[in-house]
Each structure stands twice: as structure tokens, then as C-alpha cells.
Design brief:
This protein is mainly α. Helix 1 packs antiparallel against helix 3 (60-95), helix 6 (160-184) runs antiparallel to helix 7 and helix 12 (274-286) packs across helix 13 (290-314). The chain starts with a helix and ends with a helix. 76% of the residues lie in helices and 1% in strands. Strands 1-2 form a two-stranded antiparallel sheet. The protein is globular, with a radius of gyration of 21 Å. It has helices at 3-30, 38-47, 60-95, 107-122, 132-152, 160-184, 189-197, 205-223, 226-233, 236-241, 246-268, 274-286, 290-314, 323-345; strands at residues 153-154, 157-158.
Length: 346
């Protein structure tokens, strides 16, 4: 691959998406049941930056809306979108399958089941409180992924169609378990339903701080695997000849990808199709080189989920739509298109 040809393209896309991200933050904060003027919104945000001290020309209520209600939700949406898109890049790249993502393969459902179990049986009796949710979500996601792999492995290899069908089967099974937990949950029914529908309501800065290390760790690790992604894309036999232990690398990357997805689920519930749509679209726009694909997918995922959440909370005047509904309206037809086109080529 020619680095001279790739670097300007990567820089252009990264700068363009970064600018779009910053504009999206400002406009998303402006929108809501109480509309805020652009100058006021910009000044309130800028006033929180180091070395900037503006004379307040806004009310205390406006500052509270921006800083305590909308900005935590905006940043949580950005992190969750980035996490899910990055996880999707990891799954699609290492499995060489554009239909693979944590939601389709049942990892998100496993994470939701783990989180629901923690809510019912562990969290209130544990000194760790809310922090046990990511651990149980991660465990549930890994168990789900292991079941999918055991069902889809034939003659030592993963078949694409079998892998997807195994994910659908595991999703159905885990959905049954989740329904059972809802039936016996009593007063905690609403909280468990939250995991099945996905929502960023009641977001706090604490949620942002809990999830941020997962994003930083996942991005850092996957950043150093970009060469391996590109080599494995050429074929597992070629990768083995170049000294890569393909099976061990697959396991490590899938574990990290699952960690990212399950951490997001533990905070906001199941949000489907982000890890499927964004990496595939970015691959069509910038090509398969993971040195470009990974960072632009991370940025695009953040932007996509931010606007999905903005639509979810502003589309209806009197109530909020679960964000998973918005992403499913976009993602389900896109998945059907990918599945149909894939079957035509096979």
C-alpha cells in the first residue's frame, strides 16, 4: 500500500469528520424541549474551557440545562457511538465478514443478559454498586460469543452464513432468558426493559467517566493492530506465512471488541446496527485500509449515534423514543441489503 497516497486521504477525512463532530455537539446541545440560541450555547460551552472566562449573559437555568442535562448526554452518545463503531471494525476486520458486528452475533444480547442479572441479583448487595454492571455485561457477552463460535465452526473454520445464523439463534435464546428475567423481576421490570430498548436518558458525567477508559483502551490496542488487520484481510494463509498467529490474534481482538461493546451495553442498553452500518459505509468511502478505516469509523460512529439520540429525544413533543428504535429503522434495511447482496455474490 502506498502511504503517500493514503496519508492525505486519511487527514482529509479525519479533519472533516472532526469538524462535523464539533458542529454536531453544539447543534445537539441547542435542540430540545427548551431551545437555546446558538450564541448562548456556544458561550456556555466555551466558558467551561481552561483560560476562558466570559461575563455570563445567560441565566442559571440555561447553564444548568447545557452543563448538567444535555452535555453529559451528548458526550455519552459520542463515546457509545465511537465504541460500537470501533467494535464493529474489529469484528468485521478480523472475521473478514461485512455482516459481523456485536449486535448481529449476539454479543450485545449476552451483555444485556449479564447486566440484567447484575441488576436483579448482585448490584444492590455489592459494595461496588454500579461498577459491577460492565463486569457482568462483559462476561455475558463473552459467553454469548463463545456459543456462537462453537455453533458456527466447521472443519476448523467459520462459515459466513453459519456464523450469522448462529448469531440469530443465540440472540433468540438470550431474548427468551431476558423475557424470563423481566417476568420475575417485579419492581425492577422497567430497569431491565431499558436494557432491551436502549436509551441515553438520565445520563450523567459519572457515566461518561466510567465508559471513557474502555474507549481509550480499545482504541489504543486496536491502533497497534492495524497492520495485522490489513495482512489478515489478504488471507489467513498469507498472514501465517508472515509470522502472525492468526487464531491467537483473532481471539485477542474479538475479546477487546467484545469488551468495548459490552461496556457500552452496560451503560445504555442494547443499541443495534451501529457496528454494522458505520464500518461498512466508511469502507465504501475510504477503502479497506484499517489505518484510515479505524479512526474515521470511530468518528463517524460518534456522529451517527449523537444525531440518532438527538432525533430520539426531539422527534415527538411529549415523549422520548428509545434510541434503539432509531438505529433499527436505519440498520435493519441496511442489513437486509448487505445480506441480499452477499448471497448474490456467493
Amino acid at each position: 500500500m502506498n502511504l503517500k497516497n493514503k496519508s492525505p486521504k486519511a487527514l482529509t477525512w479525519t479533519l472533516g469528520l472532526t469538524l462535523l463532530l464539533l458542529l454536531s455537539i453544539v447543534f445537539s446541545v441547542m435542540m430540545g424541549s427548551v431551545s437555546l440560541p446558538l450564541p448562548v450555547t456556544f458561550k456556555i460551552i466555551a466558558n467551561q474551557l481552561p483560560l476562558i472566562n466570559l461575563d455570563p449573559s445567560w441565566s442559571v437555568a440555561q447553564e444548568s440545562i447545557v452543563w448538567n442535562l444535555r452535555l453529559p448526554r451528548v458526550f455519552l452518545a459520542l463515546i457509545v457511538g465511537a465504541v460500537l463503531a470501533t467494535s464493529g471494525v474489529a469484528f468485521q476486520g478480523i472475521l473478514r465478514n461485512p455482516l459481523a458486528d456485536p449486535y448481529i452475533l449476539g454479543v450485545s444480547s449476552g451483555a444485556a443478559l449479564g447486566a440484567a442479572s447484575a441488576i436483579l441479583f448482585i448490584r444492590d448487595s455489592s459494595v461496588l454498586g454500579q461498577s459491577v454492571l460492565p463486569l457482568f455485561a462483559f462476561t455475558g457477552g463473552l459467553i454469548s460469543l463463545a456459543i456462537v463460535f462453537s455453533l458456527s465452526r466447521q472443519n476448523g473454520q467459520f462459515e459466513r452464513e453459519t456464523l450469522i445464523l448462529a448469531g440469530v439463534v443465540v440472540q433468540a435464546l438470550l431474548g427468551a432468558f431476558l423475557s424470563f428475567l423481566i417476568a420475575v423481576s417485579g419492581q425492577q421490570m422497567q430497569e431491565i426493559i431499558f436494557w432491551m430498548m436502549g436509551s441515553l436518558a438520565s445520563s450523567t458525567w459519572q457515566d461518561v467517566l466510567i465508559l471513557l477508559p474502555y474507549l481509550l483502551f480499545g482504541l489504543t490496542y486496536l491502533h497497534f493492530q492495524k497492520r495485522e488487520f490489513n495482512v489478515i484481510a489478504l488471507g489467513e494463509r498469507a498472514a501465517t506465512h508472515l509470522g502472525i498467529n492468526v487464531e491467537r490474534k483473532k481471539l485477542a481482538i474479538l475479546v477487546v471488541g467484545s469488551l468495548l461493546a459490552t461496556a457500552a451495553v452496560s451503560m445504555v442498553g442494547i443499541i443495534g446496527f451501529v457496528g454494522l452500518i458505520i464500518p461498512h459505509l466508511m469502507r465504501l468511502l475510504v477503502g479497506p485500509d484499517h489505518r484510515i478505516l479505524l479512526p474515521v469509523s470511530t468518528l463517524a460512529g460518534a456522529i451517527f449515534l449523537l444525531w440518532s439520540d438527538t432525533i430520539a429525544r426531539t422527534l415527538l413533543q411529549s415523549q422520548e423514543i428509545p434510541i434503539g428504535v432509531i438505529t433499527a429503522f436505519v440498520g435493519a434495511p441496511f442489513f437486509a441489503y448487505l445480506l441480499k447482496s452477499g448471497l448474490r455474490r456467493s
